[in-house]
Design brief:
It comes from Sphaeramia orbicularis (orbiculate cardinalfish). The protein is an alpha+beta fold. 46% of the residues lie in helices and 15% in strands.
């Protein structure tokens, strides 16, 4: 799969699983995204897709790398709907 396609799929999954925050942006906790069965089937390397999307300024999250368990409560914010 190409990165652009995976980033588009990621946006769809964040919209499906997320909620609007106080700023009107869609956000989802990393743990929710990571533990979702549909996401597990779509993304072979979710963390890599997240990093690519952050680099393209499609999403935002604190830190450079998200790890299961440690970062489950980190918000992933969708910057481009």
């Amino acid at each position: 799969m190409d990165v652009g396609h995976e980033v588009n799929l990621l946006v769809q999954e964040i919209q499906r699983l997320g909620n609007k925050n106080a700023d009107g942006q869609t956000s989802v906790k990393f743990g929710v995204l990571f533990n979702d069965d549909r996401c597990a089937n779509i993304f072979e390397a979710l963390v890599g897709t997240l990093r690519a999307a952050k680099k393209k300024k499609v999403i935002s999250f604190n830190g450079e790398l998200l790890l299961q368990g440690v970062h489950d409560n980190v918000d992933i914010i969708l910057l481009q709907e």
